[in-house]
């Protein structure tokens, strides 16, 4: 059964023309259509010319958003010895060793990001079924398996995000808040585009970028002119 579209969204959809928008114009429209009763996020939905069922066409990496995410993220760290104190001093919200692994196994999920040191990964591996579906499993590619615990905590709290392409080759990323200035959103979106280009999978053939849409959490989708975004110089801020 088709999902009923609310009157609010129907009205907002009328503001969006059936065309590709220049990046800044798209982000100004995103702000204009963010009318929900809560602070909405700014989201990008990017279809790439990849088939992630092949290992050489998978995309999983991190982006450091220059203007931050606008979110406060809760970071958990699983480590041993002096790394436990390092994590605590660096501002981790939850820190522990084997006892934290046990708590997570029992259902404790009071965090948005999990960092682990390489020496505890054999034990963390048993949390795969719990953490994997939630996108919380630490990985070296995602920058969440590291010996530089303090550095990783600082980066993620400052606006570093991990993202991946889903099974259909689409990347869904929150790149700020709808309350950000359009120019700040553009700075973050440009950083995201450059990261995706820089991490193009080796097996990606043909046209890599297919479509890019942006929207607020509860707003309509707005198509962005990818070529305009890619041609932009990095000093957009």
CATH-assigned homologous superfamily of the largest domain: Ribosomal protein L1/L10, rRNA-binding domain
Strand arrangement, major sheet: 7-1-8-9
The helix-strand sequence is HHEEEHEHEHHHEEHEEH
How many domain units?
A: 2
Counting DSSP H or I runs of 4 or more residues, the number of helices is: 9
Pfam families: Ribosomal_L1
InterPro entries: Ribosom_uL1_bac-type (IPR005878), Ribosomal_uL1 (IPR002143), Ribosomal_uL1-like (IPR023674), Ribosomal_uL1/biogenesis (IPR028364), Ribosomal_uL1_3-a/b-sand (IPR016095), Ribosomal_uL1_CS (IPR023673)
Family: Belongs to the universal ribosomal protein uL1 family.
Keywords: Repressor, Ribonucleoprotein, Ribosomal protein, RNA-binding, rRNA-binding, Translation regulation, tRNA-binding
Question: What's the arrangement of secondary structure elements?
Answer:
Layout: H1 7-13, H2 23-32, E1 41-48, E2 60-64, E3 75-78, H3 82-89, E4 94-96, H4 98-105, E5 113-116, H5 121-124, H6 128-131, H7 149-158, E6 160-164, E7 170-177, H8 182-198, E8 209-216, E9 222-223, H9 226-231
Parallel strand pairs: 3-4, 3-5
Antiparallel strand pairs: 1-7, 1-8, 2-6, 8-9
Helix pairs in contact: 2-8
Report on this structure.
With 237 residues, the protein is of the alpha/beta class. It has 2 domains: 16-69 and 160-231, Ribosomal protein L1/L10, rRNA-binding domain (Ribulose 1,5 Bisphosphate Carboxylase/Oxygenase, 2-Layer Sandwich), CATH 3.30.190.20; 75-158, Ribosomal protein L1/L10, domain II (Rossmann fold, 3-Layer(aba) Sandwich). The protein contains 9 helices and 9 strands. A 4-stranded antiparallel sheet has the order 7-1-8-9, with helices on one face. α2 packs across α8. The protein is globular. The N and C termini lie far apart (44 Å). The mean pLDDT is 92.
């Amino acid at each position: 059964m088709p999902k009923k579209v609310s009157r609010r969204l129907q009205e907002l959809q009328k503001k969006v023309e059936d065309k590709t928008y220049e990046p800044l114009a798209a982000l100004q429209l995103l702000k204009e259509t963010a009318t929900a009763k809560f602070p909405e996020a700014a989201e990008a939905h990017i279809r790439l010319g990849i088939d992630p069922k092949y290992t050489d066409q998978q995309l999983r990496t991190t982006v450091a958003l220059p203007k931050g995410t606008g979110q406060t993220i809760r970071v958990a760290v699983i480590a041993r010895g002096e790394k436990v104190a390092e994590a605590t001093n660096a501002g981790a919200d939850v820190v522990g060793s084997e006892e934290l692994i046990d708590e997570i196994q029992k259902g404790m999920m009071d965090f948005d990001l999990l960092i682990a040191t390489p020496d505890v990964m054999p034990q963390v591996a048993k949390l795969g079924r719990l953490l994997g579906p939630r996108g919380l499993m630490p990985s070296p590619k995602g920058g969440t398996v590291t010996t530089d615990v303090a550095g990783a905590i600082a980066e993620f709290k400052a606006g570093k995000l991990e993202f991946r392409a889903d099974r259909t080759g689409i990347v869904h990323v929150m790149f700020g808040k709808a309350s950000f200035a359009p120019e700040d959103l553009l700075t973050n979106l440009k950083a995201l585009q450059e990261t995706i280009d820089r991490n193009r999978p080796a097996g990606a053939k043909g046209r890599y970028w297919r479509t890019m849409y942006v929207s607020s959490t509860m707003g309509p989708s707005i198509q962005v002119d990818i070529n305009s975004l890619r041609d932009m110089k990095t000093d957009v801020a």
